[in-house]
Design brief:
The protein is an alpha+beta fold and about 170 residues long. It contains four helices and seven strands; from the N terminus they run E-H-H-E-E-E-H-E-H-E-E. It has a single domain (about 10-165), classed as Gcn5-related N-acetyltransferase (GNAT) (Aminopeptidase, 3-Layer(aba) Sandwich), CATH 3.40.630.30. Helix content is about 25%, strand content about 30%. A seven-stranded mixed beta sheet has the order 1-2-3-4-5-7-6, with helices on both faces. A hairpin with a 2-residue loop joins strand 6 and strand 7 (about 155-165). Keywords: Acyltransferase, Transferase. This is N-acetyltransferase domain-containing protein.
C-alpha cells in the first residue's frame, strides 16, 4: 500500500498534471547522465502513460509535482534477454526528480512507492535501462538490490540493463 506523509504524497498522474509533468521532464534535460532531449519525453508519452495508469507522481504538501516515474506493461524492452522467472514484469521508465531537489532521498521514496504499487498490481519483477553515465541513478538501483545484467546501445546512447524479481 502507498504510504503518504505530511511532506509527500504519492499517486497516479491525472490528465490535468500533464503540463507540470512535462516541466519536470524538461528541467532534467542536460543534467549529468540524462539522455533526454527536447523531443523526448514528450507530451505524447505523458498522455499515453496516464491513459495506461502507469505514470506516478510524488508531490509536496502543496500538490506541486516533485518527481515522476512510469512503470507498467510498456513492452519497450521485450526484445532483450531477461530472467525467465519474471513471468509478469513491469518496465520502469522516465523516472526523474526536479534538479533542485535531487540528492535528498526523493528518488528513493518515489522508487519504493512505485515498486510497492507494482507488486500490488500483480507484477513479479521490474526491468529497465539506465544511462551508463547516470551514476546517481545506478547507485539508487544498487541500493534497491537491482541486478545489472548487461549493456545495450539504444536510442543513440549506451545503457545498462537492470532488473529485480519481486518476492
Amino acid at each position: 500500500m502507498i504510504r503518504n506523509t505530511a511532506e509527500y504524497k504519492f499517486r497516479l498522474a491525472e490528465r490535468e498534471d500533464d503540463k507540470n509533468i512535462l516541466k519536470v521532464y524538461k528541467s532534467i534535460i542536460g543534467t549529468q547522465g540524462c539522455t533526454w532531449d527536447e523531443d523526448y519525453p514528450s507530451m505524447e508519452w505523458i498522455i499515453l502513460d496516464i491513459k495506461m495508469k502507469s505514470l506516478y507522481c510524488l508531490t509536496n504538501d502543496k500538490g506541486e509535482i516533485l518527481a515522476v516515474a512510469t512503470a507498467g506493461p510498456l513492452n519497450e524492452l521485450i526484445d532483450l534477454t531477461w530472467d525467465q522467472r519474471m513471468t509478469k514484469p513491469c518496465e520502469l521508465a522516465r523516472i526523474g526528480v526536479l534538479p533542485s531537489l535531487q540528492n535528498r532521498g526523493i528518488a528513493s521514496r518515489l522508487l519504493n512507492a512505485v515498486i510497492e504499487d507494482c507488486k500490488s498490481r500483480g507484477y513479479n519483477g521490474m526491468r529497465f535501462l539506465v544511462s551508463k553515465t547516470n551514476y546517481n541513478a545506478q547507485m539508487l538501483y544498487n541500493k534497491f538490490a537491482f541486478k545489472k545484467v548487461g549493456e545495450v546501445f539504444r536510442y543513440g546512447h549506451d545503457y545498462c540493463s537492470y532488473y529485480k524479481l519481486f518476492n
